[in-house]
Amino acid sequence: MRYVIVLLAVFILNSCSTVNSIEQELKQDNEKHSYFDGLVLYNPKTKKEILNHNGAKYFTPASNTKLFTFYTAYKTFNSETSRLKSLAYYKTHDSLVIKGTADPTFLYGFESAEVLDFLKKASNNIYVLDANIDEPTYGSGWAWDDYSYYYMPEKSLFPIYGNILKYNFSEGRQQSTPHYFKTQISTVDSVLVSRKHNENQFFAQKNRQKGYEVPFRTSNQLVVDLLSDKLHKNVTLIPNRKGLNFKYIYNQNTDSIYKQMLTVSDNFIAEQLLLQVGQEVSGTYSVNAAIKYSLENYLHDLPQEPRWVDGSGLSRYNLFTPESLVKLLEKMYQEIPTQKLLNYFPVGGESGTLKGVYKAKGKPYIYAKTGTLSNNHCLSGYLITKKGTFLIFSYMNNHYKMSSKEIKATMEKTLLQIYNKY
Question: Model's pTM, two decimal places?
Fold first, then answer.
Protein backbone atom coordinates (compact mmCIF):
# COMPACT_ATOMS: atom_id res chain seq x y z
CA MET A 1 0.00 0.00 0.00
CA ARG A 2 2.86 2.34 0.95
CA TYR A 3 4.53 1.57 -2.41
CA VAL A 4 1.36 2.53 -4.29
CA ILE A 5 1.06 5.78 -2.36
CA VAL A 6 4.70 6.63 -3.10
CA LEU A 7 4.19 5.96 -6.84
CA LEU A 8 1.06 8.13 -6.87
CA ALA A 9 2.92 10.94 -5.10
CA VAL A 10 5.79 10.74 -7.60
CA PHE A 11 3.28 10.84 -10.50
CA ILE A 12 1.53 13.90 -9.08
CA LEU A 13 4.84 15.70 -8.47
CA ASN A 14 6.04 14.93 -12.00
CA SER A 15 2.76 16.15 -13.47
CA CYS A 16 2.89 19.36 -11.45
CA SER A 17 6.51 19.88 -12.46
CA THR A 18 5.59 19.45 -16.13
CA VAL A 19 2.73 21.95 -15.87
CA ASN A 20 4.87 24.50 -14.03
CA SER A 21 7.63 24.09 -16.61
CA ILE A 22 5.20 24.64 -19.49
CA GLU A 23 3.69 27.73 -17.87
CA GLN A 24 7.16 29.20 -17.30
CA GLU A 25 8.19 28.54 -20.92
CA LEU A 26 5.00 30.18 -22.23
CA LYS A 27 5.67 33.31 -20.19
CA GLN A 28 9.29 33.47 -21.33
CA ASP A 29 8.29 33.10 -25.00
CA ASN A 30 5.77 35.94 -24.61
CA GLU A 31 8.38 38.24 -23.08
CA LYS A 32 11.04 37.34 -25.63
CA HIS A 33 8.94 37.69 -28.80
CA SER A 34 6.16 40.09 -27.71
CA TYR A 35 3.29 37.98 -29.01
CA PHE A 36 0.23 36.74 -27.17
CA ASP A 37 -0.66 33.11 -26.43
CA GLY A 38 -3.06 31.09 -24.33
CA LEU A 39 -3.28 27.44 -23.37
CA VAL A 40 -5.96 25.62 -21.40
CA LEU A 41 -5.65 21.91 -20.63
CA TYR A 42 -8.60 20.04 -19.12
CA ASN A 43 -9.43 16.48 -18.06
CA PRO A 44 -13.12 15.82 -18.92
CA LYS A 45 -13.33 12.67 -16.80
CA THR A 46 -12.07 14.18 -13.55
CA LYS A 47 -13.52 17.58 -14.59
CA LYS A 48 -10.31 19.24 -13.46
CA GLU A 49 -8.42 22.05 -15.16
CA ILE A 50 -4.76 21.10 -15.36
CA LEU A 51 -3.31 24.24 -16.89
CA ASN A 52 -4.69 27.70 -17.62
CA HIS A 53 -2.48 30.30 -19.23
CA ASN A 54 -4.47 33.35 -20.42
CA GLY A 55 -7.52 31.11 -20.73
CA ALA A 56 -10.04 33.90 -20.20
CA LYS A 57 -8.42 36.28 -22.69
CA TYR A 58 -9.90 36.84 -26.15
CA PHE A 59 -8.05 35.67 -29.28
CA THR A 60 -8.66 35.76 -33.02
CA PRO A 61 -9.52 32.07 -33.54
CA ALA A 62 -9.21 31.81 -37.35
CA SER A 63 -10.57 28.42 -38.42
CA ASN A 64 -11.09 27.25 -34.84
CA THR A 65 -14.39 29.04 -35.50
CA LYS A 66 -15.41 25.98 -37.52
CA LEU A 67 -15.71 24.02 -34.26
CA PHE A 68 -18.62 26.29 -33.31
CA THR A 69 -20.09 25.91 -36.79
CA PHE A 70 -19.80 22.13 -36.58
CA TYR A 71 -21.48 21.93 -33.18
CA THR A 72 -24.26 24.27 -34.27
CA ALA A 73 -25.00 22.22 -37.39
CA TYR A 74 -24.72 18.95 -35.48
CA LYS A 75 -27.25 20.11 -32.89
CA THR A 76 -29.61 21.47 -35.53
CA PHE A 77 -29.55 18.45 -37.84
CA ASN A 78 -28.95 15.87 -35.11
CA SER A 79 -29.81 12.44 -36.48
CA GLU A 80 -27.85 9.24 -37.12
CA THR A 81 -29.02 9.30 -40.74
CA SER A 82 -29.27 13.08 -41.12
CA ARG A 83 -29.04 14.46 -44.65
CA LEU A 84 -29.25 18.04 -45.80
CA LYS A 85 -31.86 19.60 -48.05
CA SER A 86 -30.15 19.80 -51.41
CA LEU A 87 -32.82 21.10 -53.76
CA ALA A 88 -36.33 22.55 -53.49
CA TYR A 89 -38.60 21.64 -56.38
CA TYR A 90 -42.20 22.11 -57.54
CA LYS A 91 -43.67 20.14 -60.44
CA THR A 92 -46.53 20.91 -62.76
CA HIS A 93 -47.65 18.86 -65.76
CA ASP A 94 -45.07 20.51 -68.03
CA SER A 95 -42.66 22.39 -65.74
CA LEU A 96 -40.09 21.75 -63.05
CA VAL A 97 -39.46 24.80 -60.86
CA ILE A 98 -36.35 24.57 -58.68
CA LYS A 99 -34.72 26.68 -56.01
CA GLY A 100 -31.42 26.35 -54.17
CA THR A 101 -31.18 25.44 -50.49
CA ALA A 102 -27.60 26.61 -49.82
CA ASP A 103 -26.38 22.99 -50.14
CA PRO A 104 -22.57 23.11 -50.54
CA THR A 105 -22.17 19.65 -52.06
CA PHE A 106 -23.64 20.00 -55.58
CA LEU A 107 -20.91 19.14 -58.11
CA TYR A 108 -18.31 19.71 -55.39
CA GLY A 109 -16.61 16.33 -55.20
CA PHE A 110 -19.03 14.42 -53.00
CA GLU A 111 -20.14 10.96 -54.14
CA SER A 112 -23.88 11.47 -53.73
CA ALA A 113 -25.52 12.55 -57.00
CA GLU A 114 -29.27 12.57 -56.32
CA VAL A 115 -29.74 16.17 -57.45
CA LEU A 116 -27.80 15.75 -60.68
CA ASP A 117 -29.58 12.51 -61.54
CA PHE A 118 -32.96 14.07 -60.76
CA LEU A 119 -32.30 17.01 -63.09
CA LYS A 120 -30.89 14.82 -65.86
CA LYS A 121 -33.99 12.62 -65.84
CA ALA A 122 -36.45 15.52 -65.75
CA SER A 123 -38.60 15.61 -68.89
CA ASN A 124 -40.25 18.89 -67.88
CA ASN A 125 -39.02 22.35 -68.75
CA ILE A 126 -36.66 23.46 -65.98
CA TYR A 127 -37.03 26.88 -64.36
CA VAL A 128 -34.82 28.35 -61.62
CA LEU A 129 -36.35 30.85 -59.21
CA ASP A 130 -34.47 34.13 -58.92
CA ALA A 131 -34.01 33.90 -55.13
CA ASN A 132 -31.02 34.78 -52.94
CA ILE A 133 -29.66 34.42 -49.45
CA ASP A 134 -30.73 36.97 -46.85
CA GLU A 135 -27.33 38.66 -46.44
CA PRO A 136 -24.27 39.71 -48.51
CA THR A 137 -22.26 37.09 -50.39
CA TYR A 138 -19.13 37.95 -48.36
CA GLY A 139 -18.95 37.68 -44.58
CA SER A 140 -18.45 40.54 -42.16
CA GLY A 141 -14.77 41.37 -41.80
CA TRP A 142 -13.51 39.33 -44.75
CA ALA A 143 -10.53 40.82 -46.57
CA TRP A 144 -11.92 42.26 -49.82
CA ASP A 145 -8.67 41.73 -51.76
CA ASP A 146 -8.73 37.98 -51.09
CA TYR A 147 -11.58 37.65 -53.59
CA SER A 148 -9.45 35.69 -56.09
CA TYR A 149 -8.07 33.15 -53.60
CA TYR A 150 -9.51 29.63 -53.41
CA TYR A 151 -10.31 29.93 -49.71
CA MET A 152 -12.84 32.77 -50.13
CA PRO A 153 -15.66 31.73 -52.48
CA GLU A 154 -18.92 33.64 -52.26
CA LYS A 155 -21.87 32.41 -50.24
CA SER A 156 -24.99 31.72 -52.31
CA LEU A 157 -28.40 30.08 -52.31
CA PHE A 158 -27.68 27.79 -55.26
CA PRO A 159 -23.94 27.03 -55.11
CA ILE A 160 -22.50 24.92 -57.90
CA TYR A 161 -18.96 23.49 -58.23
CA GLY A 162 -18.26 24.98 -54.80
CA ASN A 163 -18.44 28.40 -56.52
CA ILE A 164 -14.86 27.69 -57.67
CA LEU A 165 -13.33 27.50 -61.14
CA LYS A 166 -10.41 25.07 -61.55
CA TYR A 167 -8.19 25.55 -64.59
CA ASN A 168 -4.71 25.13 -65.96
CA PHE A 169 -2.79 25.98 -69.12
CA SER A 170 0.31 24.00 -69.97
CA GLU A 171 2.00 22.82 -73.17
CA GLY A 172 -0.49 24.82 -75.20
CA ARG A 173 -3.54 23.02 -73.79
CA GLN A 174 -6.18 24.61 -71.62
CA GLN A 175 -8.54 22.75 -69.29
CA SER A 176 -11.22 24.09 -66.97
CA THR A 177 -13.88 22.79 -64.59
CA PRO A 178 -16.56 23.82 -65.25
CA HIS A 179 -15.91 23.80 -68.99
CA TYR A 180 -18.33 26.73 -69.37
CA PHE A 181 -15.65 29.31 -68.42
CA LYS A 182 -13.10 28.13 -70.99
CA THR A 183 -13.51 31.17 -73.23
CA GLN A 184 -13.18 33.53 -70.27
CA ILE A 185 -9.63 32.46 -69.39
CA SER A 186 -6.75 34.43 -70.91
CA THR A 187 -3.11 33.40 -70.96
CA VAL A 188 -0.53 36.04 -70.05
CA ASP A 189 3.21 36.17 -69.46
CA SER A 190 2.81 36.77 -65.73
CA VAL A 191 -0.16 36.77 -63.36
CA LEU A 192 -0.60 39.56 -60.83
CA VAL A 193 -4.16 38.55 -59.99
CA SER A 194 -5.99 35.47 -61.28
CA ARG A 195 -9.39 37.15 -61.76
CA LYS A 196 -10.76 40.61 -62.37
CA HIS A 197 -12.38 42.02 -59.27
CA ASN A 198 -16.02 42.23 -60.34
CA GLU A 199 -15.96 40.07 -63.46
CA ASN A 200 -15.59 36.44 -64.40
CA GLN A 201 -12.48 37.10 -66.45
CA PHE A 202 -9.62 34.82 -65.43
CA PHE A 203 -5.88 34.72 -66.12
CA ALA A 204 -3.33 31.94 -66.41
CA GLN A 205 0.42 32.20 -66.76
CA LYS A 206 1.77 30.57 -69.90
CA ASN A 207 3.26 27.11 -69.36
CA ARG A 208 2.73 27.16 -65.60
CA GLN A 209 2.43 23.54 -64.50
CA LYS A 210 0.45 24.21 -61.34
CA GLY A 211 -3.28 24.76 -61.81
CA TYR A 212 -5.52 27.51 -60.47
CA GLU A 213 -8.52 27.39 -58.15
CA VAL A 214 -10.32 30.72 -58.29
CA PRO A 215 -13.76 31.73 -56.95
CA PHE A 216 -16.16 33.00 -59.58
CA ARG A 217 -18.71 35.79 -59.21
CA THR A 218 -22.04 34.16 -58.49
CA SER A 219 -25.48 35.05 -59.86
CA ASN A 220 -28.68 33.18 -60.55
CA GLN A 221 -28.23 33.74 -64.27
CA LEU A 222 -24.82 32.10 -64.03
CA VAL A 223 -26.38 29.13 -62.18
CA VAL A 224 -28.85 28.76 -65.06
CA ASP A 225 -26.04 28.93 -67.63
CA LEU A 226 -23.92 26.37 -65.75
CA LEU A 227 -26.87 24.01 -65.34
CA SER A 228 -27.72 24.28 -69.04
CA ASP A 229 -24.10 23.52 -69.92
CA LYS A 230 -23.93 20.53 -67.55
CA LEU A 231 -27.34 19.03 -68.33
CA HIS A 232 -27.35 19.86 -72.07
CA LYS A 233 -30.87 21.19 -71.56
CA ASN A 234 -32.56 24.56 -71.68
CA VAL A 235 -32.85 26.02 -68.20
CA THR A 236 -34.62 29.34 -67.65
CA LEU A 237 -34.45 31.94 -64.87
CA ILE A 238 -37.83 33.21 -63.68
CA PRO A 239 -38.86 35.76 -61.00
CA ASN A 240 -39.05 34.47 -57.44
CA ARG A 241 -42.48 33.25 -56.37
CA LYS A 242 -43.81 32.65 -52.91
CA GLY A 243 -46.47 30.19 -51.85
CA LEU A 244 -45.25 27.23 -53.91
CA ASN A 245 -45.59 23.90 -52.13
CA PHE A 246 -41.99 22.74 -52.46
CA LYS A 247 -40.76 19.22 -52.07
CA TYR A 248 -37.11 18.50 -51.27
CA ILE A 249 -34.31 16.23 -52.36
CA TYR A 250 -32.08 15.20 -49.48
CA ASN A 251 -28.59 14.54 -50.74
CA GLN A 252 -25.31 14.03 -48.87
CA ASN A 253 -25.10 12.53 -45.36
CA THR A 254 -24.05 15.20 -42.89
CA ASP A 255 -21.18 13.13 -41.42
CA SER A 256 -19.16 13.30 -44.64
CA ILE A 257 -19.81 17.06 -44.88
CA TYR A 258 -18.68 17.71 -41.30
CA LYS A 259 -15.55 15.63 -41.81
CA GLN A 260 -14.65 17.48 -45.01
CA MET A 261 -15.18 20.84 -43.34
CA LEU A 262 -13.02 20.08 -40.29
CA THR A 263 -10.33 17.88 -41.84
CA VAL A 264 -9.28 20.16 -44.70
CA SER A 265 -10.72 23.34 -43.11
CA ASP A 266 -13.19 24.07 -45.91
CA ASN A 267 -14.42 27.66 -45.56
CA PHE A 268 -17.11 27.30 -48.22
CA ILE A 269 -18.79 24.34 -46.51
CA ALA A 270 -18.70 26.13 -43.15
CA GLU A 271 -20.50 29.22 -44.46
CA GLN A 272 -23.10 27.23 -46.39
CA LEU A 273 -23.84 25.04 -43.37
CA LEU A 274 -24.67 28.07 -41.26
CA LEU A 275 -26.91 29.39 -44.03
CA GLN A 276 -28.82 26.11 -43.85
CA VAL A 277 -28.99 26.31 -40.06
CA GLY A 278 -30.34 29.85 -40.35
CA GLN A 279 -33.13 28.65 -42.61
CA GLU A 280 -33.93 25.76 -40.30
CA VAL A 281 -34.15 27.80 -37.09
CA SER A 282 -35.41 31.18 -38.35
CA GLY A 283 -36.77 30.75 -41.86
CA THR A 284 -34.00 32.92 -43.33
CA TYR A 285 -30.82 31.91 -45.14
CA SER A 286 -28.65 33.90 -42.80
CA VAL A 287 -25.36 33.10 -41.04
CA ASN A 288 -26.17 35.85 -38.54
CA ALA A 289 -29.50 34.20 -37.65
CA ALA A 290 -27.78 30.83 -37.17
CA ILE A 291 -25.13 32.32 -34.88
CA LYS A 292 -27.70 34.21 -32.80
CA TYR A 293 -29.80 31.07 -32.35
CA SER A 294 -26.80 28.94 -31.42
CA LEU A 295 -25.49 31.37 -28.82
CA GLU A 296 -28.93 31.66 -27.21
CA ASN A 297 -29.89 27.97 -27.31
CA TYR A 298 -26.81 25.75 -27.60
CA LEU A 299 -23.94 27.84 -26.22
CA HIS A 300 -25.48 30.06 -23.54
CA ASP A 301 -23.25 28.44 -20.88
CA LEU A 302 -19.84 29.37 -22.32
CA PRO A 303 -17.42 30.88 -19.75
CA GLN A 304 -17.02 34.06 -21.83
CA GLU A 305 -19.47 35.31 -24.44
CA PRO A 306 -17.71 35.21 -27.82
CA ARG A 307 -17.81 37.68 -30.64
CA TRP A 308 -18.79 35.33 -33.45
CA VAL A 309 -19.52 36.73 -36.91
CA ASP A 310 -18.98 34.03 -39.58
CA GLY A 311 -18.95 30.28 -40.12
CA SER A 312 -15.42 29.79 -41.39
CA GLY A 313 -13.17 32.02 -39.31
CA LEU A 314 -12.07 34.16 -42.26
CA SER A 315 -13.11 37.26 -40.34
CA ARG A 316 -10.74 38.94 -37.92
CA TYR A 317 -13.80 40.26 -36.08
CA ASN A 318 -14.22 36.86 -34.41
CA LEU A 319 -13.05 36.70 -30.79
CA PHE A 320 -13.06 33.55 -28.64
CA THR A 321 -11.26 32.51 -25.46
CA PRO A 322 -9.38 29.24 -24.89
CA GLU A 323 -11.73 28.53 -21.96
CA SER A 324 -14.78 28.81 -24.20
CA LEU A 325 -13.21 26.53 -26.82
CA VAL A 326 -12.46 23.94 -24.15
CA LYS A 327 -16.04 24.18 -22.89
CA LEU A 328 -17.34 23.66 -26.43
CA LEU A 329 -15.06 20.64 -26.92
CA GLU A 330 -16.26 19.21 -23.61
CA LYS A 331 -19.90 19.55 -24.72
CA MET A 332 -19.04 17.74 -27.93
CA TYR A 333 -17.23 15.01 -25.96
CA GLN A 334 -20.25 14.53 -23.69
CA GLU A 335 -22.84 14.45 -26.49
CA ILE A 336 -21.12 12.59 -29.35
CA PRO A 337 -19.70 9.03 -29.13
CA THR A 338 -15.93 9.37 -28.82
CA GLN A 339 -14.85 7.45 -31.93
CA LYS A 340 -17.48 9.20 -34.03
CA LEU A 341 -16.30 12.55 -32.69
CA LEU A 342 -12.59 11.91 -33.30
CA ASN A 343 -13.32 10.74 -36.84
CA TYR A 344 -14.42 14.27 -37.78
CA PHE A 345 -11.03 15.79 -36.87
CA PRO A 346 -7.65 16.08 -38.55
CA VAL A 347 -5.33 13.47 -37.02
CA GLY A 348 -1.75 14.30 -36.05
CA GLY A 349 0.71 12.80 -38.53
CA GLU A 350 -2.06 11.20 -40.58
CA SER A 351 -4.71 13.42 -42.14
CA GLY A 352 -5.92 16.83 -43.19
CA THR A 353 -4.22 19.96 -41.90
CA LEU A 354 -2.21 17.88 -39.37
CA LYS A 355 -0.86 15.29 -41.80
CA GLY A 356 2.74 16.47 -41.59
CA VAL A 357 2.91 17.37 -37.89
CA TYR A 358 2.32 15.96 -34.40
CA LYS A 359 3.60 12.54 -35.41
CA ALA A 360 3.93 9.89 -32.72
CA LYS A 361 5.39 6.41 -32.58
CA GLY A 362 2.45 4.04 -32.49
CA LYS A 363 -1.04 5.51 -32.15
CA PRO A 364 -1.82 9.16 -32.99
CA TYR A 365 -2.13 11.43 -29.99
CA ILE A 366 -3.59 14.66 -31.42
CA TYR A 367 -7.11 15.07 -32.88
CA ALA A 368 -7.59 18.78 -33.34
CA LYS A 369 -8.71 21.69 -35.50
CA THR A 370 -6.14 24.14 -36.78
CA GLY A 371 -6.81 27.83 -37.30
CA THR A 372 -4.46 30.05 -39.28
CA LEU A 373 -4.49 33.66 -40.46
CA SER A 374 -1.42 35.79 -41.01
CA ASN A 375 0.23 36.35 -37.59
CA ASN A 376 -2.24 33.99 -35.89
CA HIS A 377 -2.20 30.22 -35.36
CA CYS A 378 -4.45 28.18 -33.08
CA LEU A 379 -5.05 24.51 -32.36
CA SER A 380 -7.94 23.14 -30.30
CA GLY A 381 -9.09 19.58 -29.78
CA TYR A 382 -8.23 16.35 -28.01
CA LEU A 383 -4.96 14.85 -26.79
CA ILE A 384 -4.55 11.23 -25.71
CA THR A 385 -1.44 10.86 -23.54
CA LYS A 386 1.06 8.00 -23.55
CA LYS A 387 -0.67 6.66 -20.45
CA GLY A 388 -4.04 6.77 -22.23
CA THR A 389 -5.44 9.83 -20.44
CA PHE A 390 -7.97 11.71 -22.58
CA LEU A 391 -7.51 15.48 -22.39
CA ILE A 392 -9.08 18.55 -24.00
CA PHE A 393 -6.95 21.54 -24.95
CA SER A 394 -7.05 24.89 -26.68
CA TYR A 395 -3.73 26.47 -27.66
CA MET A 396 -4.01 29.94 -29.25
CA ASN A 397 -1.31 32.26 -30.59
CA ASN A 398 -1.94 35.79 -31.85
CA HIS A 399 0.11 38.75 -33.12
CA TYR A 400 3.47 37.06 -33.72
CA LYS A 401 5.82 38.48 -36.35
CA MET A 402 8.20 35.54 -36.73
CA SER A 403 7.62 32.58 -39.04
CA SER A 404 4.61 30.43 -38.17
CA LYS A 405 7.01 27.45 -38.32
CA GLU A 406 8.58 28.66 -35.08
CA ILE A 407 5.19 28.96 -33.41
CA LYS A 408 4.13 25.52 -34.59
CA ALA A 409 7.41 24.00 -33.41
CA THR A 410 6.90 25.48 -29.93
CA MET A 411 3.33 24.18 -29.83
CA GLU A 412 4.39 20.70 -30.90
CA LYS A 413 7.13 20.62 -28.27
CA THR A 414 4.67 21.65 -25.56
CA LEU A 415 1.97 19.16 -26.51
CA LEU A 416 4.54 16.38 -26.83
CA GLN A 417 5.66 17.13 -23.27
CA ILE A 418 2.08 16.70 -22.10
CA TYR A 419 1.74 13.48 -24.13
CA ASN A 420 4.89 11.95 -22.62
CA LYS A 421 4.69 13.11 -19.01
CA TYR A 422 1.10 13.63 -17.99
Answer: 0.92
